[in-house]
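Course assignment 3, question 2. Fill in each field.
Student: A.L.
Task: Predict the tertiary structure for the chain below.
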Amino acid sequence: MTKPAISVIIPVYNVEPYLRKCIDSVLDQSFTDFELLLVDDGSIDGSGMICDEYTDLDTRIKVFHTLNRGVSAARNLGMKYAQAPWVCFVDSDDWVDTNYLSAFMDDSLNENTLLVQKVLVDKENKKGKSVNLCTVLDVDYKNKYSFYVALLIPGSSPVAKLYNVQLIKKYQIYFDEKLSIAEDVLFLWTYLFYVKEVRLISSAAYHYIQRNNDSLVRRFHSSEEWIYLSKSLYERLKVLLQCGFLKNIPDERLRCIVFHRILVPLFKACKNMNHKNYVTILTDVRAQKKLIDKYYVPTIWWGIHKYFIFCRFLSDKSLLWVFIWIRFAGILRKRIKNLVLL
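Answer field:
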């Protein structure tokens, strides 16, 4: 049996209202030599049954049902069973235009090159219709450092990119299943180490939908997870700087990347700490003092600014009072907000 040219992987979890449109948009591709891998990550709505329905409609579809282990595990499972030499991802609440796959295949394919498409960001209005807000990676490709900053910050999602399966399996490049936040960023930064070129193609066929119900993306992440993310991304960034991908990048560009991807997670770690871990978390953050001093970008976002002031200048004996003040201020703000709403 002939292997398909592309494996399209869709991780699925509780997206019943959006799943059919997503699957239909993939099946409606002008380029037809692909397989579609639907990985149901333990959905408790009708998503799993919808996946099964489609297997009877198209032989190119394969469905995998697993216990809920997170999107990283779902994507890894898809890559494990991918039969094609190339793989791309689609999120189950998004959709793609008919030329999404053909745009990749019309370009010259090389395992040492990562092909990237622009992403259309659509906002769902109150009536459930989508209105385009902006386009991610809509930058001057010839200005490579502008492109790299866009790729490493807003463009770090795994979607709208074509990955080489042999490269993934050779170097064991998989999504970190210990992470439930920015795991896609870590995956991309790891993959970039093993390619020699990143090429932006003109197509903008992927529609990322911002839903009115932000519950799909709003969830609590522990301080420990934020610290782990920051450290992991910093290690990957150092490798990218050494391997030449970001060689000679201007300081202001590098500062932007470090601030948003390395330092902001440290702020998130401080924000989510509790009475059991505040000493450890603040100590971990304060251990990055040199990094903060070098790359911190002054901002009107006082929320992040105050934590860095605390972590940079306060003594260990002051950590308890810092924690008390942070928690008290948070409770006070919620009380005031509730009174205003009344």
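Instructor remarks: The first strand starts at residue 6 and ends at 12. The mean pLDDT is 83.
Grade: pending
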